[in-house]
Amino acid sequence: LQARQQMLVASSMGATAFQRGLGAMHALAHPLGALYDAHHGMLNAILMPYVLKANQHAVAPRLRALARYLALPDDSPGAVLDWVLALRETVGIPHTLADIGIDDAEAERVGR
Description:
Layout: H1 2-17, H2 23-36, H3 40-54, H4 56-69, H5 77-91, H6 107-110
């Protein structure tokens, strides 16, 4: 019964991780949440600036449009990243996964 339950969990997570447009934040937040019993929204908020930075070149046009929509001082991807970091600080989102007790012990497992 336990093996069946774990297969059900794994298949659900696999299906979620491969949804079109899901993105790196969600793809990382799902296994982290499952392994560390962490809140999905909090994980996304912590991961967001790192994922934006890592994918900055690929999403630059969208970030520029977002910067204009937010009426930021300039429309660079960096301006959006700065805005996200400031918003996180304002609402009290931790800066790193370590800040909520998640270390890198399961990094390889999460990255699969």
